[in-house]
Amino acid sequence: MLSILKSYKVFAVIFAIISVIIVSLIYNTLNVYQPLPIYQPTMVSTELVDSTLQYKKKYHKIADFSFLNQNGKTITQNDYKDKIYVANFFFTTCQTICPIMTNYMTEIQKSILNDNEIMLLSHSVTPEIDTVEQLKRYADKKGVNDNKWNLVTGDKKEIYRLARKSYLAVKENGDGGPFDMVHTENFMLIDKKRQIRGFYDGTDEEDIDRLLKDIAILKQEK
User: Fold this and answer.
1) Same domain, 9 and 58
2) For the packed helices 98-112 and 205-219, what is the interaxial angle rounded to 10 degrees?
3) Cα end-to-end span (Å), the chain
4) 151 to each of 102, 191, 192, how far by Cα in Å?
5) In terms of pTM, does the model score above 0.90?
6) In the chain, how many domains are there?
7) Which domain does 167 fall in, by range?
8) Which of 1, 98, 135, 166 is least enclosed by beta carbons within 10 angstroms?
C-alpha cells in the first residue's frame, strides 16, 4: 500500500513539473514578439492608391515633403528624421469625422507627450481654406502641443501627391478638379525608415488602443 502511495506521489510531482513546463512554453509562444507588417501599395484598397503604384509590391516609403505648420514654420521630412509618427488627413471646417479624429489624436498626444521618439502630423486637404492663421486658431482650440504635433498646409497638388502616392490614404473626388480628394478616417503609423506599419480607424476607440499598442511594438525594433 505504501509503495502504491509513493508511486502516486512521484507521478503527481512529475505531472506537476511537466504541466508547469507546458504552460510556460504555451505562454512564451503566445507572447513571442511579432513585428508589424510593412505595408505596400498592393496591400491597400486600390481606391486609395494612385494608379501608377497599384502593382508595387516592395520598397514603398513616404516621399520627401515641405509644408507650413500652424506657426508658419516650414516642416519637412527632416523634422521627422529618426522618429516614429502618426499621420492623418483632415480639414478644420469639417463637421463630420474630423472632430472625432482630432479628439483621438489629442488623446494620442497625451500618451506620447514625454516620448521623444514619437510625433504626430496632420495634413489639411483644403489648403485654400486652412491657412497658417486658420491652423493656428484650430491648434489653440484643440490643445495642440507644437513640439509634438504639426498641422500642415501647402500646395494642394503636393498634398494630393503625398496622400495618394505615399500615405495611400485618400480617395479621388471625381466631381471636382484633378487634385480634389476625399480624405478617410485613417491614421497611418510610420516608422523611422518612413515605411507604413499600420492603418487605423481614427474614429474608433478600440483601433486607437491598437495603435498605441503597435507603437510600443514598433519601438522594440532595432
Assistant:
1) no
2) 40
3) 61
4) 11, 19, 20
5) no
6) 2
7) 41-219
8) 1
